[in-house]
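Suppose a colleague, Dr. K., hands you the sequence of a protein chain of 207 amino acids and asks what its three-dimensional shape might be. Before reaching for any lab equipment, you can write down a predicted structure in token form. Begin with the sequence itself:
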Amino acid sequence: GSIGVWGKLLIGFFANLQYRLKLYFAWHLEEAALILSGFGYSGRSKHDGQTAVWTKAVSAAMIECEAPPSVALAAVKWNRHTGLWLRNYVYNRIPAGGLTALLVTQTICGLWHGLSPSFILFFGHTALLIQASRVLYKIQTRRLPASTLPYTNFAHSLWTTFSLSYIAGSYNVVSWESAIDWWSSIRFCGHYAIAGIFALGFMYKTL
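The predicted structure, expressed as tokens, is then:
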């Protein structure tokens, strides 16, 4: 029989997870090579003051990326060195700031990956997700009782996992048509969720 929306989302999640595992493997090899070569040293451990720490060699921490509390933090933890370069030399140099700076930065990031509509679509959508994540965080901390934070944090983390998997379906499909076909097959549910969060941002004046 035909696969429903939830089935397609589940298949998409595991397909994208399999792709990310290859990147984690390559990054961990790179990390090991850097440390063995003497690069990536970041000082002594804060716990005992003696153990050497090599965190500057880390490109992405798998657990932090796979179970992120928010899209904004997931973006910081993923491919850290490239992200730091983009923040220093693109994002921080755009006077408008906010969503405009995010869109410009992430579009450049897409072009950096290659001249493919799928890359532009994916990274352009990450800008929307990061901004939506910021809106959710402001609503959580400024508009809702502090007692609800553990529950809203959990909901925010679930939304992050869903939304990143949703847009990741456009990453490897190469063509614009294939990306739209993927989102259409699951009824653009992620886009409606993003629009709903932006509507909440206008309502609570947190955009």
